Amino acid sequence: MLLGLLNNTNRNDIRIKEMQDVYLSDDRPWVVGYSGGKDSSVVVQLVFETLNRLAPEQRHKKVYIISSDTLVETPLIISSINRTLLQIQNLALDLGLPIETHKVKPEVEKTFWSSLIGKGYPSPRQKFRWCTDRMKIDPANKFILDKVSQFGEVIMVLGVRDSESATRAQVMESHTIDGKTLMRHSTLPNAYVYAPIRDFNLDDVWEFLLSNQGQTPWGSDNNELHALYQNSSGGECPLIVDKEIKETAGSCGNSRFGCWVCTVVKVDKALVGFIENGESWLTPLLEFRNWLSDIRENREYREKHRMNGSIYFVGEGEDKELGLGPFTLKARQMILRKLLVTQKTVSNPYDTDYKLIQDDELKMIRRYWLQDGDWDDSVPTIYQEIFGEDLDWEYDERSLLEPDQVTDLELLCNEYDIDLELMKKLISIEKNYIGYKVRRGLIQDFNRVLNQDKLHFGKVEGYKQ
């Protein structure tokens, strides 16, 4: 097995000695952020070598290597991350190193597709990046706080560098404690940050990774990582565990290691770069991503109120119009259908089981739609239309209304000028409380729906729908 492969220079030896001193100085476990990119790859190799050079009796505390999987990661990158984590874990077990590798994922209620297709969140933009907190920061922070609860304090080991940007350097400096190697975490209590490559520049990073023919201790090849950078443009998307760093890092959408469906930037240079360098099977993903970006501002596909029912205006004078809210249910059905068609079209040569959307996300989308009055229960129907088979759906035998009753309800709502969608939501709420002896919360749920601004906003002159 290839060991001790780090560039045997005085500088790297000094770096590892410093890391050993930090490791041995207390009992706080390390949590190492690994994104699959160049900076975090350097840190993981340094950590591995740091532990490997210690005597077995000195390896007294755990080191957790965590990687964030948003479930919409660029396929080439997530395959590489999965492979690397497995290789690291296997070699650590063989060598008796106290390393555990983990992937953290968003809760199914908060995934990209559950949020966008399920709830109708508009595709992200720079001024409304709802995705980063829900899909990256929160899952990583949950893991860290679990370890804080277990051990009292933890040390985050991250691949952040001062030379990445002046703003990033200022943020890091603001949390630095004079005379100390560790920095305070800006938001997580009892968590500290250790940045062992803080003073590295870009040349230092690549010199380190490509030394020893690019071979890692666990047998992977950093030349392949270098090739990924050559086949794309932009920077890596770090494992973000800090809301301040999130703001300085900006979106991950202009990076090769962000999400394939990111719409924060106009052009996804990552997918374009991979496709131009021979990964043509990614073309359907790029086409879907571009289409999703294009339909965002189409008023036909958006509600004219926010998710909580409140309304707002944009523009002035003759250009004044109602502001846009979530995607309509009809638009969400269209997006799901196109996504599933794309999934059926894509053939990932590196992972035959690859899916663009997970089964539990489809079930969550179905749940959200039923709450929004999708009495046709259209998710199973759409899935069956495209794949010719069914998932293991759960069905409620208690039918809300018979077809003829639905028709009568539609006629009555039309006759008395009552919002049909409102009636569907109220009836759905009532159904949720059927069978309960004490129906605590029913009135509050009714009021939540009935008090929405959109229901009480009359016709106003001087604005466009």
Q: How is this structure best described in words?
A:
The protein is an alpha/beta fold and 465 residues long. Strands 3-2-1-4-6-5 form a six-stranded mixed sheet, sandwiched between helices. Strands 7-8 form a two-stranded antiparallel sheet. The chain has helices at residues 10-24, 38-52, 75-95, 112-119, 130-151, 166-174, 202-210, 222-230, 243-249, 269-276, 283-294, 329-345, 359-371, 378-387, 403-415, 420-432, 442-450, 453-456; strands at 30-33, 63-68, 99-104, 154-157, 183-184, 191-194, 313-314, 321-322. Among the domains are: 1-249, 3-Layer(aba) Sandwich (Rossmann fold); 403-455, no CATH class. Residues 1-8, 234-241, 243-256 and 459-463 have low confidence and may be disordered. The chain is built from 18 helices and eight strands. Helix 11 runs antiparallel to helix 12 (329-345) and helix 12 runs parallel beside helix 14 (378-387).
Ordered list of secondary-structure elements with their pairings:
Elements: H1 10-24, E1 30-33, H2 38-52, E2 63-68, H3 75-95, E3 99-104, H4 112-119, H5 130-151, E4 154-157, H6 166-174, E5 183-184, E6 191-194, H7 202-210, H8 222-230, H9 243-249, H10 269-276, H11 283-294, E7 313-314, E8 321-322, H12 329-345, H13 359-371, H14 378-387, H15 403-415, H16 420-432, H17 442-450, H18 453-456
Helix pairs in contact: 1-2, 2-7, 4-13, 11-12, 12-14, 16-17
